[in-house]
Request: fold
Amino acid sequence: MANILESVGNRTINELDYVGSLNIQLWSTLRAMKTALPLIGNRYRWQATVQQILQIGYEALPMVSLMAICTGFILAMQGASELRRFGALNYVIDLVAVGFTRELGPLLTAIAVSGRSGSAFAAEIGTMKVTEELDSLRVMALEPVEFVLAPKYLAALISVPCLTVISTLSGIVAGGLFMFFSTRLAPLVYFRYVLESVFLRDVITGLIKSVAFATIIAHVGCLEGFRVRGGPDSVGRSTTSAVVKSTFLVIVADAIFTTIFYFTVRP
Amino acid sequence: MTPIISIHDLVVEYDGRRILHGLNLEIEPGETMVLLGGSGSGKSTLLRQIIGLERPKSGSVTVKGVDITHCSPAELKKVRPSIGVAFQSAALFNSLSVEDNVALPLREHTKLAPSIIDLMVWMKLAVVGLGEFGKLLPQELSGGMKKRGAVARALALDPEILVLDEPSAGLDPIVAAELDELILLLKQAFHMTVIVVTHELPSAFRIADRIAMLHQGKFITVGTKDEVRTSQDPHVRHFLDRIPEQLANATSVAAHFEKYLHSQETNQ
Reply:
């Protein structure tokens, strides 16, 4: 019994330590963010940010779009197979449009970015730690949080909402294609229905979620990299851990946000 | 002369395990101090204390009059540009070219015009013999070239103290000898204080003004090359004469084995 309590206690302390580290890292990054901004910040830091935007956003574009198109088709088909029985096929449009804007667009994007970029952050920073590059930054009086983390976080804050918008549009377009091929519904009519069913609050809640997911992915990925101990094998472990933890936290955060929006944002 | 680096009663522990046991050392400006010792003797741990990467359990390290073990991060940041460090793994940033690696501290800490920075970078690279390789990425360089690139980056801000961690580790004897000559040249040209961590004897005796030898986290000898060479301390002799410690203690191993056999017989 004592062993079980000890184990639970240790686990709890470790998890609290992790959450505390995430918080400290987040505040240090927010303080260092001004150096990564264009015009008022450091020119080289903004260049690094642009490079990261291309890696997180531009390079993920085909994957995120394809995932959204496939999911849009699946959602439309699954919805249609049930709604057709009640003669409510036109509600497929609401299902796809609202579902993607509020939920699936941000979530699919976050899962894709977590797999691509969260793991890449952990691997890059972990390798920098193992090869003493982080130490060499410190001895040059450069803070790794400012030099490495701030550009990545700023890039994630810009890229993930943009990818979310594209993912949402891709899903909605896929739903439109399904409706066209299954019911010969004209695309313009479909998009008019979409505009009628999606409200500004749906777009805003989706974008708020995407900003929160970007924060989780960037910080969990970077923290896993900073926590690498030992040799190259631990870089592999931190990469896996970054994907697992960030995906888990994204889903938990999604559940919390959805609950909050359900009870506070009413039509 | 006031020492440029003073180490007083330095104690370092990791997870309750004592690595450095109350070390004391003073390094004069302009001298080359070699920290010599076998693997696990505490050389690199001491080096990390000297460059302010870690804080000790007790004791102090004073660099240019600033106690870097107890000062604020802002004070430490002011001292750091006066220490140039070349790590064992070179630690050049793989995403940047060699010249961008050398230019990095200049871009971050000075307001020099890009053309002046380019010129300074070329000069630093030329000093270490990499003048024509600036455009290459670190992964395109050989081991010796990477180490020279790391030295060039360490020299970027014209530091008063140059710290080199195992500069010749993993290099063939000729490249290692070239690095030794480079260290001597830098000292002669720039009159800097050089601290070198190594376990390579030929290298240590070629470049050192003084040698501090570590064994199990304690200095067993600190002195000139001749003083170390003639030391009669058994650990120094084992190291210099390349006698394995385990072999030297073979009799104690036999005694342990006999004791074990005796205990087995008693149990039966």
About this structure: Residues 2-264 of chain A form one domain. Chain A has a mean pLDDT of 93.
